[in-house]
Amino acid sequence: MKRNATGIAAALALLAVAGSALACGGNPMPESLRSNSAMRARLTAEYVAAHPGSRAARATHIHYGRIMGDWYAVVTFKLDWRSAKPTIFAQHMRDGHIGSWHIARQTRGAVCGRYVPVPLIALWHLDRVHHTDCYVEPAA
Questions:
Q1: Gap between the Cα atoms of 37 and 14, Å rounded
Q2: Cβ neighbours of residue 3 closer than 8 Å, sequence gap 6 or more
Q3: pLDDT confidence of residue 25
Q4: In this structure, is residue 22 part of a structural domain?
């Protein structure tokens, strides 16, 4: 009987989250998306504005997707012939309007579930850092 009650409570919680996501215009299922040159240019401009002196920044790798009305991009830039740590960008839907991209986090190398939802990170096939909610690019 206790297991039934726990299962019902979990199902109701999931429905509540999915219902609020749909009410806010977001799909509760994560979706990995392809970036285009216009988006790459927008994110590079945002990075350069936040990092004075990095005018030569060039986006070399982008993971991009959306979940529950929010868009996320994890971008690695090349600066002066070296790669910088990934930068997390976010864009949120509010009152039916999509906001502008902003830097949510400058990482130290790992993308963590505190800043990008883990179900979205899972679509990008990143490697999990042992015993954390953080993920890194697979070793080549």
A1: 37
A2: none
A3: 55
A4: no
